[in-house]
Write the structure tokens for this entry.
Amino acid sequence: MNQPDFSLSAEVPPYLEGLNPAQRAAVEALDGPVLVLAGAGTGKTRVLTARLVHLLATGKALPAQILAVTFTNKAAGEVRARVSEMLGRSVDGWFLGTFHALAARMLRPHAELVGLKPTFTILDEDDQIRLIKQLLAAENIDDKKSPARAVLAIISRWKDRGLLPEDIRHESKGGFADGKVPKIYALYQQRLKDLNACDFGDLLLHHLTILKTHPDILAEAQNRFLYILVDEYQDTNTAQYLWLRLLAQARKNICCVGDEDQSIYGWRGAEVGNILRFEEDFPGASVVRLEQNYRSTGHILAAASHVIANNKMRLGKTLWTSADMGEPVRVQSLWDGEEEARWICDEIESYQRKGVALSEVAVMVRAGFQTRAFEERFIQLGIPYRVLVGARFYERAEVRDAMAYMRLLALPEDDLAFERIVNVPKRGVGPAALQQLHGYARSAHVSLMEATARLVETDELKPKLRQTLRRFSESFSRWRGLLQTLPHSEVAQIVLDDSGYTGMWQADKSPEAPGKLDNLKELVGAMAEFDTLFAFLEHVSLVMEATGNAEGEQVSLMTLHGAKGLEFDLVFLPGWEEEIFPSRRSIDENGEAGLEEERRLAYVGITRAKRRAVISYVANRLLYGNWINAIPSRFIEELPEPHILRHSTIGNAINSHMRPSAFERKEHVPSLWDQIKAGQSHSASRQVKQIEGRATVIPTPRNSDEPNVGDKVFHEKFGHGFVRRADHDKLEVYFERKGVMKVMARFVKKVGTEA
């Protein structure tokens, strides 16, 4: 390890003052490959900037000889500002920026080698989709079944993996886009060259191609950059990894800063394996672990470290702090999602009264659809909030589209709703057709829907358009008829399915599509909570009216994916249940790797908290309109008992002093089930109540054929049990295999009472 040689002064320079030993080692290890494993809250940005200053101050390199790569323009700007402040002057001419920005800068001088001119343009997403649509049409591929956005997503993933069209095997006929996506990729690349244009994926891919095929240009780049510094290395995709490895192979003066435990973007191409095999790529590399955390309390760090230790794909580190232990992580169990949202909002108000600023409070959910319940509760209580990384629930494009269908269903005169969805999904109703409808509607003083119904009975429209609009008009008439016989939430699902809107997103292969489908399911489920469609539409109107730009402090509401890099005094982590977190989709699609990324999300969530972290789960969850018996997340079992405090609102204090998992394993009631099977269910029931400190249960009057307190019942999932509490259609049942569970009455079958 090279030690700094300060010729002007033997004193420690200001930019090294205050660094702990590990941080200083990361700053001063200038030559050779270095991997800095920077745990959450360990001062990573300070190390990055101090290392850059150290390179310049020691004369190791000039600004133009350093390649510093960040993932966002914001991060690049922050590093630039800090370095300039430390040096006392601006630094010009250096290569500091995002992968895309740096690749574009380095590509332009050699653009002719990949069929472009140095003046090439960079297309935005709308232009890319428009171009893909043209190619699909030329190949007679139905854009409704194989959306252009989905085709583009597949092509982008290939580019992220560093694959050219000739690297892609042709698919069989049939399937998505008739098996022609590889051909579309090749045609798309040729069309981009004809336009002298690139998309964002091309910037890196083209430069990578040039470096691979032109040794002289590769050598020039390797000689120019004496030192390479990479931030957030755990988030690099394959193309970025290959690009960096090529540039660093000659001198090997590459320093990668990252945290494998915070690699949470696999769904968009990030490869955690890149950071895990750093020492294989660069033999003899130095590994510096930043483990001293300056953000969180001891209990929070211990909880996070204990959970992430269950991952196998990691290099290993344990966060610690010199600060006090603080409060244990609170684990709260509740009856259902509605109570969870109500309880969390009550807690927020309670902490606010104690002096905690709302700006220091965050609610972090696993999936975007989970924000709806909290948004509505915030609005109801008048708690100002902001949604980070994404729109508010009712402002999301797919929710607005679905709401337009519902508005037009309830109010045929809603011309704005008509305009929004008459061609969504695509039906061939373009601007000219809409203008014709508007002209007739104005002259006849009728709505666009009425104008459509009249015009389709004439010859004024072209035959194909006439048939399309007739089907559109007749569909709404049929759906309105269904409202007379079916619940409005069921009709809503029928509308979204029959209209092709659900199918449009099901066919979309982009990473965002599954989340949009979840939001649509959440919307339909929310409708079931209202007596009529009109009542729901009125509710949404009031919600939207109340979501103006709030001033002053606001609670932050976000997904765990959007929480990285943030910190708050108080963090609520709701919905820690199997299926939701870890996500069933993630595990189904990626197996063990998916589960480990979910666990990394849990680690990221917990480590966002500075002083207090609250994890919650429920016994029953209304998911997409259906009640399910929720099972606590496996991550809750992985929390260390000495560093958590369990509470429950289910049955008063059942779990305040007793671990739920232990109760489910019957560790505290070893002989009660035998008593129940022996026909002593009532006395056994009383013993259970005494153990749990419950008040006497007074049976709710019920029909004789319905399960009542003391009755034996059978549940297809949980097996045999006896009813301990009955409240209308909600039962509290002690099951032989699972312990106490909350279930809906319709899910259990009453069985005989004989021994």
About this structure: Confidence is low (pLDDT under 50) at residues 1-9, 652-701. The chain has five domains: 14-107+205-292, 124-194, 300-392+553-648, 400-424+443-543, 668-750.
